[in-house]
TrEMBL record:
The lineage of its organism: Eukaryota, Metazoa, Chordata, Craniata, Vertebrata. Residues 27-87 form the Thiamine pyrophosphate enzyme N-terminal TPP-binding domain. Its EC number is 4.1.2.63. This is 2-hydroxyacyl-CoA lyase. It comes from Cyclopterus lumpus (Lumpsucker). Keywords: Lyase, Magnesium, Metal-binding, Thiamine pyrophosphate. Residues 15-24 have a biased composition (Basic and acidic residues). One of its GO terms (cellular component) is peroxisome. Residues 1-24 are annotated as: Disordered. Residues 1-13 have a biased composition (Polar residues). Residues 389-548 form the Thiamine pyrophosphate enzyme TPP-binding domain. It is an enzyme of class 4 (lyase).
Length: 586
């Protein structure tokens, strides 16, 4: 898994042909601008990783290919260098014969990537890789796959026969060269659409700006901040749009999100999909008459679920600059003394009161709000927050502020558990190479942590000073306490009795970290939380893990749901024949 960004060097093949092997390797690096390779090696790709290292690429050995892919995709998001996956496969002459690990990899990857191909000969590898890199970067960015047959890995090639002139031979004479492609062209929105968008905005009584991950990836932060401030508009971020404008910006209405979405009459949507995260842009969570001004890089995204009143197609940063140019001339600003602003501000104050009351509860075990309240007090303002889990991620999102763009990485659109540790490893690698002095804090639900928990060894192996906080409620959404677990175990086989959401109570995730030489803390109280987090944040030499035990039935602010304890009782009643009907939702 490679994060790469081609530059614009274009030396001719002839001059390179005379270079020494070492010069060639350097050239590979500068040409491809590949900095990191994440993966797991085995025959026949060990040499590929060694050749990459010889060419100056950092090779990060992970414990699982999934985590390697997550790490590479985080590099893509943080640095703007998309992912190219290179997979080793069966020797060509054994294909269809039932060779070791024979599988239609190219076909399988086609569904999940923008481009998937197996070069038919050594000579075409450079051009296939160039196409993979270009495709990954152009339009909406996305991963691409290139399959390298086992017998090609150690084969030699006659330079004069290589398709397209650009070629270098790396340390082991493996052709692993990406020929150079220009950075993606920048497209602007149609001028008429810009004017239409601004007149829709001027006519709005209850305008709202939504800032998505696309705006973060498109590095639109400077222009967007100016736009929001000049226009005086309320805004809220999507989960990974957090930090494009600071969460504590006076125009941020994230704490009144539901009301803002429900009542807005014009929504200016920057690089966010109208998918489940935004309730599809539909009633009952949106005003049925809302006008959407949709700004997106991807034409196919326009009109998904809601037909936009205005569609601005192109580079998000460039379009915000276009909007700003007209706005400055018009000298228009949404007034700050409207009923809309008062409604939003009242809701923000009311919600803050509820969260604060929960946060200041001094009971042990702690609840989510108490944990996040104290964590947020200690986190440096420029730290990168990685997060996954259900309650852990949702509540953490509302309570842990981001002040800088691309400083929040979470389970995102797919809600995929297991991404956290790979993301954190990638962020720590970037921090290390850029000497940015930013802490990487990985806030994990106990279930989420389990998906890629062995990557703790990777963190310890490379001394990556990630701080992992496992918010441990003994389960998926909810768990049970140790006492209840014991009682259940007495009743019979736990596979029939234990609620499917439960995990082992008070599991010692901290000892997973100490097993490999990192710091581990078992945390039950606010005082323990403060001292463990302070110690972890001051240690730049190795990773830490805080295993924060919380109330197993701790939940989000009141919702209609059945707790785990209620579920257990219903199971018990059912097993004793006392209850026929069980209603349960998790
Ligand atoms: C790959 C994958 N498998 C399963 C799920 C289903 N799922 C949703 S959230 C979750 C874990 C939530 O528990 P935890 O991480 O402990 O967070 P909590 O809600 O308890 O704070 C799971 C397994 C998923 N989202 N992704
Ligand atoms: Mg949990």
């Amino acid at each position: 898994m490679i994060g790469s960004q081609p530059g614009s060097d274009s030396n001719g093949a002839d001059s390179r042909a005379d270079r020494s092997r070492e010069e060639s390797a350097e050239h590979v690096l500068s040409l491809q601008k590949v900095e990191y390779m994440f993966g797991i090696v085995g025959v026949p790709v060990i040499e590929v990783a060694m050749a990459a290292q010889a060419a100056g690429i950092r090779y990060v050995g992970m414990r699982n290919e999934q985590a390697a892919c997550y790490a590479a995709s985080a590099i893509g998001y943080l640095t703007g260098r998309p992912v190219v996956v290179i997979g080793g496969s069966t020797d060509q002459n054994l294909e269809t014969a039932g060779a070791f690990q024979e599988f239609p990899q190219v076909e399988a990857c086609r569904l999940y990537s923008k481009f998937s191909a197996r070069p038919s000969s050594l000579e075409v590898i450079p051009s296939v890789i160039e196409k993979a890199v270009r495709t990954s970067m152009y339009g909406r960015p996305g991963a691409c796959y290139v399959d390298i047959a086992g017998d090609m890995v150690n084969a030699k090639v006659d330079r004069s026969k290589v398709r397209f002139a650009i070629i270098s031979l790396s340390f082991y004479d493996i052709v692993l060269v990406v020929s150079c492609c220009p950075t993606p062209p920048v497209s602007l929105a149609h001028h008429g659409a810009i004017t239409e968008a601004l007149s829709a905005l001027r006519a709005a009584k209850k305008p709202l700006v939504i800032i998505g991950k696309g705006a973060a990836y498109g590095r639109a932060e400077t222009a967007l901040r100016e736009f929001v401030e000049i226009a005086g508009l309320p805004f809220l971020p999507t989960p990974m749009g957090k930090g494009v404008l600071p969460d504590d910006h006076p125009n941020c209405v994230a704490a009144a999100r539901s009301r803002a979405l429900l009542q807005a009459d014009v929504v200016l949507l920057f690089g966010a999909r109208l998918n489940w995260i935004l309730h599809f842009g539909l009633p009952p969570r949106f005003n049925p008459n809302v006008k959407i001004i949709q700004v997106d890089l991807c034409a196919e995204e326009m009109g998904n679920n809601v037909s936009p009143a205005v569609a601005l197609l192109g580079d998000i940063n460039a379009i915000v600059i276009q909007l700003l140019e007209v706005l400055r001339k018009d000298d228009w600003k949404y007034p700050s003394d409207t009923e809309w602003w008062s409604t939003l501000k009242d809701k923000i104050v009311a919600n803050a009161k509820i969260s604060k009351a929960l946060a200041l509860q001094s009971t042990v075990p702690m609840n989510y709000y108490t944990v996040f309240h104290h964590v947020s007090q200690l986190l440096p303002h420029d730290c990168i927050i990685v997060s996954e889990g259900a309650n852990t991620m949702d509540i953490g999102r509302t309570m842990l502020n981001n002040r800088l763009p691309r400083h929040r990485l979470d389970a995102g659109t797919f809600g995929t558990m297991g991404v956290g540790l790979g993301f954190a490893i990638a962020a720590a690698c970037v921090e290390r190479s850029e000497h940015s002095n930013q802490r990487i804090v990985c806030v994990e639900g106990d279930s989420a942590f389990g998906f890629s928990g062995m990557e703790v060894e990777t963190m310890c192996r490379y001394n990556l000073p990630v701080v992992i906080i496992v918010v441990n409620n003994n389960g998926i959404y909810n768990g049970v306490d140790a006492e209840t677990w014991k009682e259940m175990a007495k009743m019979g086989d736990l596979t029939s009795i234990a609620p499917p959401v439960t995990l082992l109570p008070e599991a010692r995730y901290d000892e997973v970290m100490t097993a490999f030489g990192g710091r581990g803390f078992l945390v039950r109280t606010v005082e323990e939380l403060h001292s463990a987090l302070q110690l972890s944040l001051s240690d730049w030499e190795r990773p830490s893990l805080l295993n924060v035990l919380i109330e197993p039935s701790s939940d989000r602010k009141p919702q209609v749901t059945v707790t785990c304890q209620e579920y257990i009782f219903s199971v018990i009643l059912r097993s004793t024949g006392q209850n026929e009907k069980i209603h349960c939702s998790f």
